[in-house]
Amino acid sequence: MHGAGTATLAVVSKPVVRAQDLLVGYGGAPVCAPVSFTLAPGKVLALVGANGSGKSTVLRSVIGLLEPSGGSLQVFGSAVDERDVTFRTRVSSVLDDDAYFPALTVSEHLYLTARGHGVLGADDVVEELLAEFGLTEHARSLPVALSSGQRRRLLLAAGFARPRALLVLDEPEQRLDRDMKTRLAQRLNDERTHGGAVLLATHDADLLRAVADRAVLLSDESSRLVSVAEAVDMIGRNPS
Ligand SMILES: Nc1ncnc2c1ncn2[C@@H]1O[C@H](COP(=O)(O)OP(=O)(O)OP(=O)(O)O)[C@@H](O)[C@H]1O
What we know:
This protein is α/β, with parallel strands linked by helices.
């Protein structure tokens, strides 16, 4: 478990995500070849691939925003149901750039997220996250008054403000400076150490090297499990 003042990380031992020939897409058209992977507790799996290869779409399916069009997808051993309270207490996600409350200050946003998910000692959790994500001096700012990188920090901090056994992140490195990227990598490694599972999409070779155990390379022709070294090599050949 995390130290004092940090949202509790629920530890589970079964596979967290199991995708078998999973097909995802829009209007019946798949966005990539079927994808198969298993994500165990305490592991970090990265989705890599070119722009438009389907990374965000796979993530949306895993958190229940999009029904798979084929294959099977299980999260915590069951079909995905984001309305299920157990599912919601175990899955924390940061996908979209604008998923903040425009009328709440930075600290109110984090506090509401923590309290809304039943975190005890929410004040301490918020204070710790503000410091960790470099937002302390912006605690009373509204999101509109933040830079895009600071807003990104707020959304990421909110992802850590609630209980979770699975963290789903879409290109968390976006708009972060190097120092914040390093701290994010440390946070994700902590998550793994404490038994949390992380599924993330990324174009960042440094983040991959720092945190990922394996990667899934998505493409139209064949989506396949690859080593981190192979994923880093792919990113090197097709930098963003
Ligand atoms: N809501 C949508 N309706 C229809 N098509 C969509 C929708 N969202 C995404 N797509 C299409 O699905 C494909 C995969 O998009 P997706 O966002 O999953 O790719 P990605 O790998 O995350 O890309 P990037 O690296 O640019 O973030 C793209 O061709 C995109 O145009």
